[in-house]
Amino acid sequence: MPAPRRTRLTPDQRRAQLLLLGRDLLGSRTLDELSIDELAERAGISRGLMFHYFKSKQGFHRAVVEAACEDFLACTAPDSALEPLPRLHAVLGAFVDYVLDHRATYVSLVRGAASADETVRELVDAARRTQASRILAGCAELGLADTPLLRTAARAWVVFAEETVVAWQEPDGDRTELAAFLERTLVGVLSCVDPAADVLSRA
């Protein structure tokens, strides 16, 4: 019986395949441990072809981090059709689900902020800025003034939320409890920024 014919991938399809493999591998190793040789072997291609797509190991790492950040931001994007409070519920629920469902990959991703590669650090930082910007957009809808303190608080809360979910030790626990805790902390932070504001009633 003749061997089954291989499906030839287009360059874009091959690159997408390699990035998906790279993101999967992040679930079991750090960014610095991602190996060009291992990925090429798993994809069934030559090491030289890997360098054709990514130029260098650093270029591959950057592309994997960029793809992972884009996936995370897409999965946690706010639904503008919802009112502010239901939107916050939905975003925090999606955030908790994403991190717990991709825990090892997410840990490797956020730890990438400590990478020696400046581009990798910037990609992770840009994802955090996007999250903080989403919070600020919600605050604007609630009538909170855009101040340096509010912007600082939003960014700090994003990092706090990251560490909280990563540190969660009950993978089979009540995720809604964790999301509700994050919501209370965000409301508390916003109330500290503007003590005169009743954030919940505005929402």
UniProtKB/TrEMBL annotation:
A GO term for molecular function: DNA-binding transcription factor activity
Residue ranges for the DNA-binding region feature of this UniProt entry: 35-54
SUPFAM superfamilies noted in UniProt: Homeodomain-like
InterPro entries the record matches: DesT_TetR_C, Homeodomain-like_sf, HTH-type_TetR-like_transc_reg, HTH_TetR
UniProt keywords, alphabetically: DNA-binding, Transcription, Transcription regulation
Entry annotated with the keyword DNA-binding: yes
Keyword DNA-binding carried by entry: yes
Domain HTH tetR-type: 12-72
Name of this chain's protein: TetR/AcrR family transcriptional regulator
Source organism per UniProt: Yinghuangia soli
